[in-house]
Amino acid sequence: MGGEGFTRKGFRLFDFLFSLFIGMNSKDNLTGLLDRFGCLQAAEKLLTTSLHNKTSFAVVWLDLDRFKKINDSFGHTGGDAVIRNLAERLQRVVGRSVIARMSSDEFVFLLPECDRPHAESFSRLLAETVQELIPIGNMTLCPTASIGIAIHETGETSLDVLERADRAMGAAKSKGGNCIVCSGDEPTPGRLGISLAREELLIESNLHVALETGGLCLNYQPLVRADGSIEAVEALMRCSVKGENLPPAKFIPVAEKTGLVVRLGEWSLLQGALQAQMLQNQGYQIKVAINVSRAQLTSPKFTQALNAALICSNVNPALLELELTESLFMDISNTVQMNLRNAIATGVTLSIDDFGTGYSCLANLKDIPARKLKLDRAFVTVLPEDARALAVVRAMVQLGHELDMTVVAEGCERQEENDLLLEAGVDAIQGYFYAKPMPEQELVQWLQSWSTK
Amino acid sequence: MSETSRDASPSVVADLIERTILDVGIPPCPYILDRFITEMRQDDPDFNRLATLIGSDVGLSAGLIKTANSPYFGVRQRVRSVNEALAILGLRTASGAVAGLILRDAFPNVPNLERFWDASARIALLSGWLAQYFEIRGLRAEDAYTFGLFRDCGIPVLLGRFPHYGQLLAKANQELERGFTEVEEDELPTNHAMVGCLLAQNWWLPEEICLAIRNHHDAEALVSEGSNLPQLSRRLIAVSQLAEYIVQRQSGLSQTREWEKLGDGCMRVLTLDEVQLEKLYIEAEPIATSSD
After folding, report:
1. Can you tell me the distance from the alpha carbon of A220 to that of A415, in angstroms, rounded to the nearest whole number?
2. What is the pTM of this model?
3. Same domain membership, residue A210 and residue A172
4. A200 and A152 in a common domain
5. N or C end of chain A: smaller count of CB under 10 Å?
6. Cα of B148 to nearest chain A Cα, Å
7. Residue A173 shares a structural domain with residue A78
8. pLDDT tens-digit series, residues B81-96
C-alpha cells in the first residue's frame, strides 16, 4: 500500500506515456475521481499553466492509515464503502483543485496557485475531513490519514513533485500516521525501513483495539521453591485481536516505542493486583509478580497509578511484587528513585528481572532496594553442558544471598537443569519444567492439583 | 436506572454486576459488558443473545431503550425494544449506554450517592447536547454523554475506601489555585482521576474516554502542544467542563472552581469566545434545567 504506490512499482515511464495516449476521461470506477493516469495528465497540464502564469502549485498526497485493517475487518465491500464515503467528503472540500485516486487508499490533490502555508492549511482541512466518523456495519470508524505535501520547485517535472509528495507522505506514515509532513522536512530514513514502520503501525492499532475490546489478558507462571511450595506467580501479558495472538516479542517493542507501554503496564498492575486479591479470597496467599517497564517508572504518575491499583483491588501490598529489568539501574533518575521509594513505602516488593545478561552493574546492585534476583534464562539453558555457566550461577546465587536476596532461576525446562539449579542453591525455579504460563482459571486448578501432590 | 426499577429485579441486577461481593475497591467489569466485548470480537455478532440477557433485567432494558431514545444519544428513529436499540446504536455505543446504566448501581456499599449521580447525569446530558451543538468532527454526542457519566467515577470508589474523602473533596472543590487532583494528593497517595481511569479501562471503555477521565483536571494537558492527549479526549474534557459550568451557573450554586482554572483552556479547545459563550449559555439554559 501507500508509499510504494507511485514510483517504486517501476512503471513510471509507462504511466507517463500511457497518460499521454489515453483519452481525457481517465476515471476511477469506484469513486468517479481521476485515476493515476488522469492525475498524471492533470499534473502535466497544471505544470504548463503554472509555468505560463509564473505561479507555483502544490501536490498533496493523502494515504489512509490502517486501511488494511479496515479491509481485513470488514471485507473488501466494507473497504469500498469507506473509500466511496471518503471520496465524496473529500470532493466537497477540494474547491478548484484536482483530486485523484492513486491506489486503493491513496488520494492526490493538485492545488493551483498554491504556496506552502496554503497547502498546509488545506492539508489540515483534509485531515479533519478524513476524521469524520464513518458508519460501517454496526460499528463506526474514525479514520485518520498520513499526508505529504510538495510545492513545485523551478526545473522540476510534474513527476518529480508527485514523487516528493509521495515520499513526504511515507515520512508522515513512519511518524505513526495521522500527521502532515512537508517535503524537505521529512527526517532521513533510519535503520527501520518503511515497511517495518508500517508493520509497527498495524501492531500499534491492534494494541489500541485490544485495550478496548478485551483483547488483553494476563497469564500466570508459578515460581516453585526447593521445598515444593509456591514462591510467587509471574503475570505475563497476552494480547489477541480478532482471534489472532500477537506475540509479546512483537507488541512489547512497539508499545515501548509509542508510549502505550505505560497504559498497558497500568492495566496489568490493576489486573495483577485483582488476581492476587482473588487468590487470597480463595485461600492462596501467593505473591503476584508484575512486570514494570522503564517508561512507567520514569513517569511522574507512576506512584498514583500503583496506589490506584492497590486501592481498587484492596489487595495486601505484600502480595504484589514489581519486576524491574536490570537495565533500569544503569542510570537512576530522581523520578525513578522517588517512584521506587514510594513503591516500597506502599509495602510492595521489588525484584530484578533478567539478571546477569544486560548491564549487570554490580556497583549499583548494593543500592537497589530489591529483594529478589531473577537469573536470566540464558544461564539455565546451557547448564547441563557448560560447567562454567554452572560456576557463574553458583557465584550469582552466593552474591544474591550475601545481599539478603532471594535468588530465582527462569526458563527451566528439563530435569537436569532443575537438579543443577537446586544444587547451586537457587531458592526458586520458574519454567516449563513446572508449568507453562496459564490463564487465571487454569492457574487455580494447577494450584489445587499441585498442593495435593 | 432509577431506584424503583432496581428494586423490581434486584437479583438480576446483582447477577449482572456479579463478583462485586468480593472485597475489592472497584466494581469489577460487569458480566454483561464482558458479554458485549465477546460479541464485538465476533465477525458476526449475535445481537439476540445480548438482547435476551439485557431483557432479563427490566430496569436495564427500560434504561437502554430510554437512553437510545434520548435526543442526545445520536439516534433519530424511535426505538421500542432492546433488539432495536442494539441494532440502531451498534454494539460499541450500546455497551457504553449499558455501562452508564450499571455504573449507578455498582457501588452498593457507598451510601448517599444519589445527589452525586444526579449531578453527573445532568452534566452528561448537557455534554451530549453541547457535542451536538458544536458539531465537532469526531466528537459524538453519545461519547460526550458516556464520558460525563464516568468522568468522576473514581469519587465513589474513594468515598467507599476513605472515611474522610468527603471532606477532602469539599476542600478540592473550593481550591482556586492548585489543581483539583493536587489537593487530593495532599492526603491520599492517588486521585479520583487516576482511579476512574483504571475503572473505565477495566470496563473496556474507549481509549479516548479513559484518557479524558485521567486528565480531566489537568489544565496543562488540555492545551499543551506537547502533551500526548488525543484531540478527542481534550474535546470531551472541554465539553464536560463547560456543561458543569453552565449547570452550576444556572443553579446559582458554584460547587466547584474548575471553570476558573480550566475555562480558558476549554474555550480554546472549543474555539469559543466570550460573546459566543453568552449566546450559548442562553440556549443551553433550558437543557440544563430540564430533568432528563
Report:
1. 21
2. 0.71
3. no
4. no
5. C
6. 19
7. yes
8. 898 888 878 888 888 8
